[in-house]
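Forwarding the complex inputs:
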Amino acid sequence: MKKNLVSVIVTGALAASTVATMTAAPAFADDAVTIKFGIHVANPAEQEPVTNSIVETFNKENEGKYKVEFVASDTESHSKNMKLAATDGTLPEIFWIDASEAPEYSDAGLLLDLSDFLNQNADIKTALNGMEAAFSDDNGQYGLPYQCNVQGFFYNKELFDKAGVEYPTDDTTYDQFIDMIKKLKESGVTPLAIGSKNSGFAMWEFNEFLSRYGWAENIDKYKSGETPFNNDDLAACFDKVSGIAEAGAFPDNMATIEYFDAKQLFDNGSAAMFGTGQWDCAEFDENLGDKVGFWWGPKFEDSAYDQNIDMKVPSAPIVVSAAAADDDKKLEAVYEFLKFYYGKEAAGISYAGSIFPSTNYDGLSASDSQYAMNSMITALGNGWKTPSAAPDQTLSAAVQEQLYDSLFGVMQGTYSSADALDKMDQAKANE
Amino acid sequence: MHWLSKKRYKIGLTIPTILVYSVYIILPILIAVRYSFSKYSGLGKPKFVGWKNYIRLFHDPLFWSSFKNTMIMFILAFALLMVLAFLVALLLNQRLVGVDFCKALIYSPAIIAPIIVGIIWVYILDPNIGFLNGLLDRIGLSALKQKWIGGNTLTPYSIAVIYFWQQLGYLVTIFIAGLKMIPGEILEAADIDGARPAQKVMYVVIPMMKTTISNVAVLIITGVFKIFEIVLQTTGGGPNHVSDSLVTYSYSMTFSSSDYGYGMSLATITFIVSLLITGIYMAIFRDKEKKE
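Prediction (whole assembly, two chains):
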């Protein structure tokens, strides 16, 4: 009898909750076409606040018509999830993908050719100013730059002053950089914060090194196998990285700290320099304020290649799943979102959040209190040329991973320059 | 309950388990083995490459380094856990004051997620910010400071110690359960015969706990070959894979380098090695049992 009573109560409660859910549902009914946006951070509001603001603004302005929802997970999980979604046909309509992986998606026919979108929106094509070229192949325009990455060294002026070291300039040479490192080290701070644990990708400042040793000029030869990675130019470049390590630039525990820990060292004034990009500007404004400066990196007197190079490059692309074209309403929503994302209003949101958008519109700039971003804008004022893509973004996933491993191997004294470059050749051979 | 003993009912009752086991255990293993013979980036169709991945694997110094690390972790963790977990179980099986509190204390690391265990130990072993080197500094033994993690040598040993710390309580609990199964009369008889405590352990307790010891051994073997989060959290396998275990190296190749075929060949070899070690242990154990 007791059991029967319990059954009746449980069944009644379930039925009541079902009815309540059904009756409540119309109150939340939304006819908006929903599209998914796969993003490479677990918490977009915290970790990609600019993109989050752009999406929120779009959703607000298109309430009841279109809605963008994030599918969010950390970079590594995101990469895995997208591959799994690709195999079972559940890719989000729009998703961020690493530049090294995007061509594979394109070759597999999983991505929508966005040439039509650009042709329909000539103003956006003009605003992108050729930055989209990094993400086109024989299959068409398979992606558009998520943002514009400006990469190099941020430095803490206060720590330089305390150590009696002059701020680096566009003309600072490698030998002067080594002296700078030694003096900073003597002053009791970590000269250059970097962490290798699960953070191989955090080598942005060394993209400038690779570029100044002719990466852009030779990458086609490296990729075709005509010139091995283990060549005089790259060996000299890796030797310079090794020299920085020998001068004591890096934290002793770089193998056990991550990029975020290294950034913390810079934020709290324990490290004088930190290599990163504009995505960290807002954090530096908050922690260092007007003490922050920005520098492209040293010039190399032994290199025959052009040294007047900035690093303002397209970041990894956002791409559209080819399946989005199967549903006219979804495709319309995707195009509307892309129009907004690459429009002037979103570019304004980007600037306000200290992120360089991939588009250029007149009348947009950073405010006076955006110290880190302004220091980058000042650095960009030299008018030097910039590569069409960051060196690490020009490689396949396996060789890119080996480049990261090789650079950190040299920094940590695990590999000689020759070993490190041989490993890249080996990774290329294994493809 | 007679009807349950009929053959057709026995088969009927085991079919769901066999099905679940086949779908979730056997099938993924077979799929992994299949991929290990292919070149596959995770997208499109895998390309059959025969034994190429296995040939590459045996020429890959990083495979041998991760294999060596795994074996160091296995030998050290196995020796520490088998001996100390048994001794601690013997101690905690006594009627002593505070024994229940000690059991809870020793068991507590087993309920902490491995990724958190890794974080805790980073704060102990990190060469710069870690407690251990800090302590050595404070007590004037700075000369003994080491790169416990993140260097080129000590990481696998440190990982084994961390794994030991995490697993000790769990295995002690299994050993205590085994000790409780030994009939009190047998131990009393040994007492009456004048056996000393060490003799009781050697000639009564251990022989009567063979099944428990065997189960614990298998748990350690299979557990060590699955150590993943601790390595990932303490060093990420670095610097430059020198502290990778077979599992983390396989993960790195599969997901960071998008080389699924090679990653699966590493996973297959890991599976075979753990199967072999378990098999060898079981064969020796059964052989001894038969002789006795």
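Residues 10-29 of chain A have pLDDT under 50 and may be disordered.
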